[in-house]
Amino acid sequence: MTSDSLRRALTAPADPPLRPLPEQVVALLETLHAPPRLAAHLRAVHEVAAQLTDAVAVRFPQLPFDREAVLFGAANHDVGKVRHPEELSGPGPAHEPAGHESVFLDLDDILDRIAADADLRLAFQATHPVRG
């Protein structure tokens, strides 16, 4: 169950306006029972990243970059502060490895499934010549 204060931090109108976080990040924050201040911080950083990527896309249209990946990264970059909320109001590096654990442990199963077929992909690749 999401607390009312977390829900407000995720959805409340702000001045200046803040875009909503990606649904996957909202679900993660709700699952982890994130502190409301963390959700508000991630919304603010996500908004800055959105404005920057908008500007870069207009100013440098020839520069390829994955806008969605940048926005996703901005939206969850401090998720480790769920375990170290003291770092929401002061400095500290403890949230960095905690964030890695919180988010990337969920990827282990996916990576295991992908790795299971690696030999087949490499075998397929090997059946084709290096030069045409």
Structure notes:
The protein is mostly helical. It is 61% helix and 0% strand. The protein has one domain. The chain is extended and about 60 Å long. The model has no long low-confidence stretch (mean pLDDT 88). This is HD domain-containing protein.
| Fraction of residues in helix | 55-70%
Number of E strands = 0
Principal-axes geometry comes out as extended
Query: Helical region count?
Result: 7
Question: For the residues shown, what is the average pLDDT?
Answer: 88
Largest sheet data: none
Total count of domains: 1
Strand fraction band? under 5%
Compute the gyration radius: what is it?
19 Å
Point out poorly predicted stretches.
none
N- to C-terminal separation?
58 Å
Q: What's the order of the H and E elements?
A: HHHHHHH
Structural class: mainly alpha
Notable features of this structure?
132 residues, mainly alpha, HD domain-containing protein, HD_domain
What's the short version?
The chain is an all-alpha fold. The protein has one domain. The protein has helices at residues 4-11, 23-31, 36-59, 67-76, 95-104, 107-116, 118-126.
